[in-house]
UniProtKB/TrEMBL annotation:
The lineage of its organism: Bacteria, Bacillati, Bacillota, Bacilli, Bacillales. SUPFAM superfamilies: Prokaryotic SH3-related domain (SSF82057), Zinc beta-ribbon (SSF57783). This is Protein PhnA. It holds the Pfam family Zn_Ribbon_YjdM. It comes from the Bacteria. NCBIfam families: phnA. It comes from Candidatus Kurthia intestinigallinarum. Belongs to the YjdM family. Residues 45-114 form the Protein YjdM C-terminal domain. Transmembrane segments: none annotated. Residues 4-32 form the Protein YjdM N-terminal domain.
């Protein structure tokens, strides 16, 4: 059986495929397979050069970053291990523990996958 996605609007599991579109009987939302693919691509988190990041990856900071409440900056070239996805916390989408700084939120646009 074909893998039919949940409705992106109401998250209903009762969606069905009708010709070229997916339809949700609960909210009436209709979307195409192309729109579904675009939404899945947009949900991926990428680093500064376009590599797809996964939880647990190691990354390198590519730019000196000011850390709120710290006496020094996070220098470019600092290696960060075991990243986690945190959703969207003030525009930051990664969480990691950095030696000397503790747990930080980092934007994926300032890291490069190792």
């Amino acid at each position: 059986m074909e893998n039919i996605p949940n409705c992106p609007k109401c998250n209903s599991a009762y969606t069905y495929h009708d010709g070229s579109a997916f339809i949700c009987p609960e909210c009436g939302n209709e979307w195409t397979a192309f729109e579904q693919q675009q939404a899945e691509e947009a949900a991926l988190i990428r680093d500064s050069v376009g590599n797809i990041l996964n939880p647990g990856d190691s990354v390198t900071i590519i730019k000196d970053l000011k850390v709120k409440g710290a006496t020094s900056d996070l220098k470019a070239g600092t290696k960060v291990k075991n990243i986690k996805f945190c959703g969207d916390v003030d525009g930051h989408d990664l969480e990691a523990k950095v030696e000397g700084f503790g747990s930080l939120y980092i934007r994926s646009q300032y890291v490069k996958k190792v």
